[in-house]
Structures are given as structure tokens and as C-alpha cells.
Amino acid sequence: MVQLSEVVVEVKDLFFSYNSQFVLKGINLEIRKGEMIAILGENGAGKTTLIKHFNGLLKPSKGFVKVFGLDTRKVSVAQLARKVGLVFQNPDHQLFAETVEKEIEFALRNFGFEEEVIKRRVDWALNLMGLAEYRNRSPFTLSIGERKRLAIASVLCYDPELLIFDEPTAGQDYLQKERIAELLNLLKTRGKTVIIVTHDVEFVVTRFERVIIMSSGQIIGDGSTREILTNLNILSKARLLPPQIAKCAWLLSDLNIPKDLIYPEELVEKLKDLISGGHE
To answer: How crowded is the C-beta side of 28, counted as CA atoms within 13 Å?
Structure first.
């Protein structure tokens, strides 16, 4: 019998409204320790509003959210902060220190880490995110992509159990996206629970095991990456384009190419089989 890991986030019948307008409507969700989950959907789908419930920034209008067993209606953001790290879509919403180094130091000092540990973790985070040469610069002299990586570093340094990234690949070039992908792999090997909100379907398709699709404040798809990102009905409802390999497979389905392919290698193998079969 497979033993399920502990539930990190439990969402039950969650409704949330801004100015009497519901933007989340009846969300039910469980996220378990060690999962890597991507939440996709068009602008206004409710993705960011949902993840802000996971660290207590927002409180349910109806229903409940429990994080590590704590009801977010009854605890403060500060009480959740040591275990939950949230990196905002706009890094300027969380950067404030005089230098890049002090930005990363802040949370570590706030949580009472010793000086030796602070120095070691700051150096590690700067090197990991490719920011070591900027350590004495003001955060606000960095490019948007560099500021985003600094925001990530400022959360990684204190090693929370649940990490939430809002559009981490936005404004990043290919090399930096690969750096973020390596970071996600590192977090996975360390047993962390990772949630990202993104529009970047191609980034998600080969790196995440579970995908959640949102539309108009509701979850309309939740399952394996292959199951969800090859379901054109769900993607159409959410106004998302399918991954390129999935789209190619659909276009070639009349040639008996399976419609649920998501990896380039899979498509290549099927095409090879098709070609070799045609020459027998």
C-alpha cells in the first residue's frame, strides 16, 4: 500500500470576494509534502488571489484554508512566515533594503539566525541566483530580471518548507530560466513543496508533475501534467495554448500519432515508427 505524504495545504469550499465580487468560488484542494505544482490560467482567473491565502495574506470570506495544520483565519502572516515563503510577481513589492546583501540578510536576522549562519546562507543564495557581483548594489539599480532573482534569493535563504513563486520566469532569458529550473530540481531533491503560478506552459510541461488550471475563480482542471496539458477542452476554457509538442501530436493524430504526447522524444519515436512502418 502506498503511504501518502502529509497534507501541507488544505483548502475547503473557499470563497473570497473583493468589494462583494467573488473572485474565488468554491475552491477545494489538497497539496501534499514534496509535490511540485504549477497553477495556470489567464489573467484574472484567481491564481494570485489563491496563493495569497497560503501564507495568510488574505483570509477566506467563506470556507477555510489550513497550512501545516494551522487555520489561516486564526493565525498571523508572521506565524506562517517561517514555513511558507512567497515570492511576488512584482519584486518591487517585497524589496526595500539598501543593498542586495542586506535584502537577503533581513529575514535571517528577523528569524534569529546566528551571524555565521547568516553569512553562509547569504553567500549561498547570492551565488545560486547569479547575484554575487551585485551584493553591495542597491536592489533598485538592478534590472527587473535581477530584482526577481533577488526576491527569490531573499526567500530561499531561510529555507521554508513550502515555497510559492508567482510568475518566476517572467522577464528571464533562457539561461536564467534554466537556472530557475535547476533551483526547482534542487528544492525537489530536498523534499520541499513547491507551487508556481505561471503563464509559461512550455516551462511547466517538462518540469512539473501536477498542473492545476483555473478559470473565473474556479479550478477547472487538476491532475498529471500529461492529462491536463493535452486536454484541449480544458485549455480552451482557460484560454491557454497547448504545449508545442502536444499541438503537433493533435495535428498528426490522423496518422495514428497519440494525442497525449508532451515530450519531444516521444513525438520523434512515434514519427520514426510511422516512417519505418511505411517502408516495410
So the answer is: 2
pLDDT digits (tens, 9 = 90+) for 233-264: 999 999 999 999 999 999 999 998 999 999 99
Q: In degrees, to the nearest 5, what angle opens at C-alpha 221 toward C-alphas 219 and 227?
A: 165
Chain segment 180-211, per-residue pLDDT in tens: 898 898 899 999 999 999 989 999 998 999 99
Q: In degrees, to the nearest 5, what angle opens at C-alpha 111 toward C-alphas 153 and 36? A: 45
Q: Which residues are within 8 A (CB) of 77 and not within 5 positions of it... i.e. 6 or more apart?
A: 55, 56, 57
Q: Is the dihedral of CA 77, 82, 84, 89 positive or negative?
A: positive
Mean pLDDT, rounded, for 124-131: 92
Q: State residue 278's pLDDT score.
A: 54
CA angle 229, 233, 236 (to 5 degrees): 85
What is the full DSSP assignment across 210-257?
Answer: EEEEEETTEEEEEEEHHHHHT-HHHHHHTT-PPPHHHHHHHHTGGGT-
Which residues, listed in sequence order, are joined to residue 193 by a DSSP beta bridge? 162
Which are the contacts of 40, defined by CB distance < 8 A and separation ≥ 6? 47, 197, 198, 199, 201, 204, 211, 212, 213, 214, 238, 240
pLDDT of residue 245: 94
pLDDT given for residue 280 in this prediction: 47
Taking the C-alpha atoms of residue 129 and residue 148, their distance in angstroms, rounded to an integer, is 10
What's residue 144's pLDDT? 86
Q: Collapsing DSSP states into helix, strand and coil, what is residue 170?
A: coil
* Domains of the chain (ranges, CATH numbers): 34-56+75-243 (3.40.50.300), 244-280 (no CATH)
**Rounded to an integer, what distance in angstroms lies between the CA atom of residue 73 and that of residue 66?**
9
Instruction: Say how many CA atoms lie within 13 Å of 210 toward its Cβ.
Output: 14
Res. 3 pLDDT band, cuts 50 70 90: low
